[in-house]
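Hi, here's the filled form for the chain we discussed.

Project: internal
Contact: R.S.
Residues: 200
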Amino acid sequence: EGLGGGPARLGDLPELREICADIVTEDHRAAQVIRRLRVLFKRGEPQFEPRDLNDLVRDTIELTRNMLTSRHVTLRTQLAPTLSLIPGDRVQLQQLLLNLIVNATDAMDGLTEAERVLTISTSLCVDAVSLCVADRGPGVATEALGKLFEPFWSTKAGGMGMGLAICRSIAEVHRGSLTVTNAPEGGAVFCAQLPALATT
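And the returned structure, exactly as it came back:
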């Protein structure tokens, strides 16, 4: 029967199938988000310990080296020679950096191999350490800059829109911030500012 109690018309069936397919798709997306959040926070409270951000960057690069090679991305690093330690949870900070690396790699899919350059840099600011990931993709549209970190908002077809929201949440849990700008020469630059441990 139709929704109004009468028999369903044959012409309604394709529309009903499309609605049901949409419901199933959204259900799968929600399940994926829940799984990712569980993995991210499965260790419970963050384990804040003194961390060397340069060491964390080097370790995370090793995890992504095969992916970057298979996608023909050239990785460049500009790590500050000396950095203050930061209080941080290793798993969460690696999750933040991994997400930014994957996003930067995705942003350069349409470029030639020679143009696919990803740069990871660290620097020491006043009472803080900065971690930046820059790509040479098309950059972020002006109208998207204010929405990029909102949950379930994505510029990717089929994207869940949770990666950058999680990244900003991790930065905020560490009493820091995550921002995005467009580089003058092209591409997007994501920078996390994380407070440094006080030196005695």
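Let me know if anything looks off before we file it.
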